[in-house]
Design a protein that fits this description.
By secondary structure, the protein is an alpha/beta fold. The protein contains 13 helices and 16 strands.
Length: about 425
């Protein structure tokens, strides 16, 4: 009755009224929950949009024990926001699976301050859970963190953790807002391309891999984000990187979960390959995760240049529809140690061109011919117009002579 009266005094449409009801309902979850529900206008559950923020999420993983603990995390939020991060993942925030803060990381009031400042910086907070065994019930600890206002979890697999992921999803459904779960792609039932050298034919990718767990999670109760942290830039293996990108695209096409790419632990490639790593991660059709420091730390010129490149890549990934959702085709230039791929919209036109990515994995300049690649993809074009590049080169480049600097990246649109 009150809602009806409000409609008469302040005429609104059904959609606006529904948004108001959703926001009022969000107030019932408490200040911390509301802070995260309304952390950014783009979060489903705020009543302001129907877009899911996590489909192209840029996640920044932070060790809750490092650099001042949780207080240090709060102090770095300006830098995270400037980087274009969508969410931070707190690692080691609790000891074992007991609900509560690990004293080595800080106190509960420190965590609440992290949530408050994250909301002010348009960031979401995720918590990493690391059960010792796959038989532990994670429902209680999940509800503890969800009630504080976290936006979701990263479940570190302890064997076959399908049951635990189901518990997390079930707990999250009773809370307002779109809570996201990150799980391992290796535990997914989604088919991925298989290297024939592994003992299976390419046709086997139409079904479950032979080494996939029998009780792999189903689409409805599995993680929304499927983390593949296997890509290794060092030691150099261009073919493996290309296959990782192909697997990532296969997961994206399957539509059951959104792939999230990260580098293997300790395999980021070092400062000389930092911009290549940033490009590989932040130009996928899904999400990306980096660890604190990978984006360039310190005051040196190299660190600042790497940080600027991450910011540029993040901005492009968030603003360019072709990069986010376009059809992907990975090119094979392994013999020149170049990782190359093309992203194209559903309808390619002069105003909506395909985007070409080239990453030189060597310390020598490389010159490529891409004409036959474009012809094989039935894409019209004679030259590339520069979008971003890591060197100081200027102007467009012919498809016959595309030059990429040592450890360099070139991104251009195909023009004709």
């Amino acid at each position: 009755m009150r809602i009806f009266c409000l409609q008469r005094v302040f005429p609104v449409g059904r959609r606006e009224l529904l948004r108001g009801v959703v926001v009022l309902a969000a107030l019932c979850v408490g200040p911390m929950g509301l802070a995260q529900t309304l952390a950014r206008p783009g979060w489903v559950g705020s009543g302001l949009t129907v877009n899911t923020w996590w489909r192209h999420a840029f996640v920044y993983a932070v060790d809750a024990h490092a650099d001042g603990g949780l207080k240090g995390v709060t102090a770095r939020m300006d830098a995270m926001q400037a980087l274009g991060v969508d969410a931070m993942l707190l690692r080691g925030v609790q000891s074992g699976m007991e609900a509560g803060i690990d004293p080595a990381a800080g106190a509960m009031e420190d965590f609440d301050e992290v949530l408050l400042q994250a909301s002010r910086h348009n960031l979401r907070v995720l918590v990493e859970l690391s059960p010792k065994t796959s038989s532990e019930d994670v429902t209680g600890v999940a509800r503890f963190w969800l009630s504080r206002g976290v936006a979701g979890f990263r479940l570190v697999a302890a064997g076959d953790s399908a049951a635990q992921m189901r518990q997390l999803r079930a707990a999250a459904k009773s809370y307002v807002g779109e809570r996201v779960m990150i799980g391992d792609a290796a535990l997914s039932s989604i088919a991925v391309p298989v290297d024939p050298a592994d003992g299976e034919s390419a046709d086997a990718s139409k079904g479950r891999r032979a080494d996939a767990p029998r009780s792999a999670v189903r689409a409805g109760d599995g993680p929304q984000l499927l983390l593949d942290a296997s890509i290794a830039v060092a030691p150099l293996n261009v073919a493996a990187i290309r296959m990782a990108l192909e697997k990532n695209d296969s997961l994206s096409r399957a539509g059951t979960g959104v792939p999230m790419l990260a580098t293997a632990e300790g395999a980021g490639g070092g400062p000389e390959s930092g911009k290549v790593v940033a490009t590989l991660l932040l130009s996928t059709r899904g999400g990306a995760m980096i660890r604190a420091g990978e984006e360039g730390s310190g005051e040196g010129a190299e660190a600042q240049a790497l940080s600027r490149w991450y910011k540029q890549m993040s901005a492009m990934q968030h603003s360019n529809g072709t990069v986010r959702t376009g059809v992907s085709a990975v090119l094979n230039h392994d013999d020149q140690s170049v990782v190359a791929w093309v992203r194209r919209p559903q309808v390619v036109s002069y105003h909506s061109p395909a985007v070409v990515f080239l990453c030189n994995m060597t310390d020598k300049p490389v010159t490529l011919s891409l004409r036959s690649d474009m012809q094989g993809l039935k894409l019209k074009g004679n030259f590339l117009r520069t979008v971003m590049r890591t060197d100081e080169g200027m102007g467009a480049m012919s498809l016959d002579t595309v030059k990429v600097a040592p450890h360099g990246v070139y991104i251009g649109t195909l023009q004709y």
